[in-house]
Amino acid sequence: MKKPIIIACIVLVVLSLLFAFYQNQKANKWKREAIRTEKELNTKLTVLQDSLQLVKKDLEREKEKTKEAKKIAETMSKRFKESFDKL
Length: 87
Description:
coiled coil, mainly alpha, single chain
C-alpha cells in the first residue's frame, strides 16, 4: 500500500522539478529577449540623438547663412538707393 503512494510522490516531485525547470528556461528566454530589445532600442535612440544634433547644427548654419544674406541684401539695397539718389 505504501509503495504506490511513494511512487506517486516521487512522480509528483519529478514533475514539479521539470515544471520549475521549464518555467526557469522560459523566464531566461524572456530576460534575454528583453536585454536584446533594450540594446536595440538604445542603439536606435543613439542614432536618433545623433541625427537630432546634426539637424540642429544644420539649422544653426542655415540661420547664420540667412543672417549673412540679409546683411548682404541690406547693403545692396543701400547701395542701390544711394546710386539711384545720385541720378
